[in-house]
Design brief:
By secondary structure, this protein is an alpha/beta fold. The chain is built from 8 helices and 14 strands. α1 crosses α8. The chain is globular. The relative contact order is 0.15.
Length: 338
Amino acid sequence: MSGGLRVGLAGATGTLGSEILAVLEEEPLPLAELQLFAGERSLGRDLEFQGEVIAVETSPPRLQGLDLLIVCTPGEAALELVRLALRAEVACLDCSGSLIGSSDVPMVVSDLGVHDQVFGAPLLTTPTGPALAWALVLSALQRAAGLARVVGTVFHSASAAGRSGIEALSGQTIALLSQQPVPSSDVFPRQIAFDCLAHTVDSDETTEKDGATPGEAQLAAALRRLLGPDVRLAVTSAQIPTFAGEASTLAVETEQPLTVAQATRVLEEAPGVELWRDALAPGMRDAVGRDVALVGRVRRDGSLEDESHGLLMWLAADPVRLAAVNAVKLARARFSLE
C-alpha cells in the first residue's frame, strides 16, 4: 500500500470489522497505511489484506499519525475510542451505534445523500442493524407521500450477536441433531436452535417507558433522526434460528394517498433498494452479501379506515454488509475521494 489515507480499524476481527475489510478489498480506498485493532481475545492474530499480513494490535491503539479511525467495537469500548480519536485530532467514524442518540453528531446513510456536514467532519456516526435497510425504503416513501406512522417487526439472525451468536446457534443445532445435550450459551437467554424468541428485557437493563428493549429503542431513535420526530413508530424485534441476514415486516401509513402501483414505482427507483415483483418474496439468504435492501409483497393495508394511505411489505437485508458498505462510502465522502 502506498499513498493515500492512514486508517485504523477498531474491532477488526469482529463481524462488522471483517466485512469492512472485505468491502475494502473489493472497492479499495487509497491507503497509505492500515492499522488493525481488536480486544484481548484477538491477541496474536494476524489478518491478510491486499496480499499483506497485518498484525492485530490489542493494546490501546496508537492514533497519532492516522487520518481516520473506524470504530466497530461494542458500546463502552467504542465511546472510549471515540474520545481518544477526538483528543488525538483524528477523524472518527463510529459504526457501533453508541452515538445514535447524540443529535450533535451527524448520522448519515450514504445512499440517501451526503450533506455538507460530512466533508471534513471530526466525527460521524452511522445507523446500525435494521435501521439502514428500513431507512432506504421508508425515506423513499416519505419523499413520495409523507409518512404518518410505521409499525414494524424485525427478525434477527444469529449474526446480529456477532461471531459468538453464530457459534452458539451452530453448537445448539449440531447437539440437537446428534441427540446430545444442548450446550449452554451466554449469548441467548434460551435455546434458539429450532425456535423463535421475542426479544425481552433483562431485569438489570434500562428500558424505555413503553417497555422497548435496548435494540428496539435504538432502532426507533435512529429512524426518528433520519425520518423526523413527527413519524409515529412502533418496533418489535425477534430472534430466529438462521445464521445470517435479517428480515422485517413493515406496515406504513402515508400522509398522502399512495397506491400500490405508485409505491412499487417509487421503490424501483429508490437508491439502495431492489424491488421483487415476483410472487415469491425475497428470503434472508437472498439478501446475504448484497449491498441493497430487498423488498417484496407490497400490498394494500386493509386495516386502515382509508386504505389509500396504508401499505404492507416484506423486507430482507444483510445489515452487516449494508453497514460495511455505508462506512466505506462515508469514508470516501469525508475525504472527498472519487
